Amino acid sequence: MGTAGIVLAAGTSTRMGENKVLLRVGGEALVRRAVRAALEGGLEPVVVVLGHEASRVGAELAGLPCRIVSNPAYASGMNTSLEAGLGALPGETTSAVVLLADMPFVDAAMVRSLLVQGGESDAPLVVSRYGGVMAPPTLYRRSLFAELRHREGEGRGREVVRLHEAEAAFVDFPPQALLDVDVAEDFERAKARLAGREAR
After folding, report:
1. pTM of the model
2. Which pLDDT score, from 0 to 100, does residue 189 have?
């Protein structure tokens, strides 16, 4: 069984003031960009967890071979979406990469790098590192799924990374690839950077 993908796209975007995963960068919505990176990076199946404005967000994914899962408890935090995504994976899934829909510089090549490292290592997780900062996407082996689903508190994925950091394998990416779109200034910075990259 290949490595699955879980794209978390259910949040309410309270800091942005509008649904950030619907914002368009590089000609497409952030959520579609993230799902495309997962698919083109070789993840299968790709599960997309929706919640806030699920019908609008789902419409942006038309034509992509992904599985959409609804999280009715999305307002209770990201942990509920992670649990919903893990629960939707096939029983034979051996590992999964968790991606966030608001990180526009995570691309297919980065996903493939995680898969390569995962294939070369027996580590229980493979963590992306941006100039020393650990952040998604992260590959988790099945041995950690129960811990991801049942650990209390917010930031469950981050907490599992912290607890197992000594056992982890790492893939290093440029620090500038670490940008999550939380507020309007982040969005403007992402658009400007993408425009500059595409102009070169």
Report:
1. 0.93
2. 86
